Amino acid sequence: MRTLPQSARRQLDEAYAFSTVTPHLADGRTIETVVMHYDATSRSRARTTICVSSQVGCPIGCSFCATGRSGFDRNLSEAEIVDQFLMASRKLADAQRSLTNVVFMGMGEPLNNYAAVVGAIRRWAAPDTLNFSPRRVTISTIGLVPFIERLSAESLPVNLAISLHAPDDELRSSMIPVNRKYPIAAIVGAARAHAERTGRRTSYEYVLLQGVNDSPEQARRLAGLVKHRLSHVNLIPMNPVEGSPLAPPSKHRSQAFQSVLQAAGISTTIRATRGLDIDAACGQLRARQPQTVLTPA
Ligand code: SF4
Question: How confident is the model over 65-92, as a mean pLDDT?
């Protein structure tokens, strides 16, 4: 800003941070932010998606997740969430690319940090800032029912992705302890109401774990649960986590699970996992590299 006097620039520099995240360790805490490029296909345009974090660590403690096993430190501020987007945008500008989508699928349960997450989405969306539509934002949640209901009342047309992962409460509670408080029927009911109210699609995320939740019978039960308008199921063969006894099923078994859902009329995809080669798939970065990645300043 060379149009300002040097003294004013110095004052600004002392009083404000240009960015609240840096690629280097500052306060000893780390988060993960991942940018994924998707080439155009016959059915969709090329996309560049950023996967952002909402918390340092996560308090939910899902049994299959590296982030969950490392515990919870603190919520991110609204600025720290906003800045993950800005920092990625600056880096992409060098390659003449821009972000097309945001997913809250990095570290943390976004609805557990509700005010900062909704504040960041509104800030990205403001016409005098980035004008980035909430329709291009997806909040991935384990299913905190009161916050899904609050979100629906906000007139904020974001997409919801519900981390379901099991077709019955007994199994889901063993994987995701908070299911005892918010059981599957209540979560699907709230998600369905959000879809009806906003016209936005609900994705049900289902991590496929060999011998745990990947049988044809479990696929049939899942189909019975999630059949509603604007519903979609994303099957995600598990990312291997070092030291975990859990493993992904074979490709054949994953496809058999998908076939059962499709036969029941449910739109279903098997997600191509991004970042396995660099250990940057969901829940993996921090377990491997606690001292790098983006760091709240
Ligand atoms: S899967 Fe999501 S909600 Fe569960 S522990 Fe990991 S980050 Fe938290």
Answer: 88
